[in-house]
Amino acid sequence: MQEFDALGVPFRQRGKLTDDYLRAVRAAWDNDQDYRGGRIPIWVGGNSDAGLRRAVRLGDAWHPLRFTMPWLRLAVDRMTELADGQRRPVPSLVPRIALRLTESPVTGPGRLAGEGTIGQIAR
């Protein structure tokens, strides 16, 4: 929140501001599409429901970070539900997975995707 205070931007407005900026970027890029010869995809991050809604509404792809696989499966179902409800295409899934190899298996429900033995990660 300090960065918002430093800029004089209300923290509660961050979602609306993000939406406004994404729309502005998309409009600028779409106006320049003839020059580039193609559309630049927008990846929207955020693991909250607001992030999922934003990815469906304004993004071409959803970019979640630091998650468990069970959570990701539920989130993809939720994103599909949101897209269906808005009659929009489901954004591509482009997750960021930090690889952390271990010699012994990582157990417990909090194991992040990309964490554990090679066998765990491959599964």
Which geometry do the CA atoms define? globular
Beta fraction: 5-15%
Q: How do the strands line up in the largest sheet?
A: 1-2-3
Number of contiguous helices:
6
Q: Which bin fits the share of residues in helices?
A: 40-55%
Q: What class, by secondary structure content?
A: mainly alpha
CA(first)-CA(last) distance: 38 Å
Q: H/E order of the elements? A: HHHEHEHEEEH
Outline the structure in words.
This protein has 123 residues and is mainly alpha-helical. It has a domain at 1-40. The chain is built from six helices and five strands. The protein has a three-stranded parallel sheet, with helices on one face. The protein has a two-stranded parallel sheet with strand order 4-5. Helix 4 packs across helix 5. The longest helix is centred in the N-terminal third of the chain and has 18 residues, at 14-31. The relative contact order is 0.11.
Give me a quick take on this structure.
This protein has 123 residues and is mainly alpha-helical.
Please give the structural blueprint:
Elements: H1 2-7, H2 14-31, H3 33-36, E1 43-45, H4 49-58, E2 61-63, H5 69-86, E3 92-93, E4 100-101, E5 115-116, H6 118-122
Parallel strand pairs: 1-2, 2-3, 4-5
Notable characteristics:
single chain; 123 residues; mainly alpha; two-stranded parallel ribbon; 6 helices; 5 strands; 10% strand; globular
